[in-house]
Amino acid sequence: MPQLSQDCVETICQRTVSLSFRDMSMGSIKKTKKGNRNPLIICVCGMAGSGKSTLAKKIAQKYSLKYYSGGDALMALALEEGYDPLERGWWEGKEGMRFLAKRGKDPRFDQAVDENLLEMAQKGNVVLDSWTMPWLLEKGFKIWLEASTEKRAKRIAGRDNISFGEALEALKQKEKQTTRIYREIYGFNLGEDFGPFNFILDTDALSAEEVFQVLCLVIENVVL
Q1: CATH number at residue 140
Q2: Per the count of CB atoms within 10 A, which of 84, 103, 118, 139 is most buried?
Q3: Residue 169, H or E segment
């Protein structure tokens, strides 16, 4: 696999990437005098189509961490409710939007998922792919992947084999309802409140592989 050098990454960051580091104490991620560290928690967050799930899985695999997804847990609940969430592009489809509307009327779906993720986080050595954990967890290293609406819509259109216009409209409707759900349950504004994040990466000018290599360098030099 091609590797980016430290100098190359710094050049990318200076020319095309907005980077932001916050709270470098990182809660529980502190090495002891013996060189050991408390169990690792990494949260990866970003709006739909930002690539967060793919990157979170790759990070978990590379560093031998367990991967947990809030989206997968919600899909399991949808399956129990009689939906068929296994089809590609389900979240942006009509059935996925109906389940989203149901979640908006009943917060117990999201609360059940988040309670489970919090339990998994306490065990440590995990990567959490979640829209809520950065706000609900005090511990951990929290990453936000920033991407423009247009780039995210293009990704979703290619992934789900739909037109760009269809993807863009579905994205707007989904995000309007999703942000309202979390604002009403937890009081934060998804996509606007970046206070909890230790590292923010603007991915618009980078390939998926470049984003992954930047995140690996950050994790290896700041977190591990």
Answers
A1: 3.40.50.300
A2: 103
A3: helix 164-186
In a domain, 39, yes or no: yes
- What are 42-65's pLDDT values in tens digits? 999 999 999 999 999 999 999 999
The DSSP code for 34 is: T
Q: What are phi and psi of 29, to 5 degrees?
A: -85, 75
Q: What's the structural domain count of the chain?
A: 1
Strand bridging mode 141-146 / 199-202: parallel
CA dist 84 to 15, 53, 79, 108, 195, Å? 44, 20, 6, 20, 36
Q: What is the mean pLDDT of the chain?
A: 85
Read off the pLDDT of each residue in 158-164 and give the average, rounded to a whole number.
90
Domain presence at residue 22: yes
Spatial CB neighbours of 30, under 8 Å, sequence gap ≥ 6: 37, 38
In the chain the beta strands, taken as DSSP E runs, fall at 19-21, 41-46, 66-69, 126-129, 141-146, 199-202
- For residue 90, give its domain range: 6-223
Residue 1 within any structural domain of the chain: no
Quick one: average pLDDT of 121-140? Answer: 95
Q: How many beta carbons lie within 10 A of that of residue 27, not counting itself?
A: 15
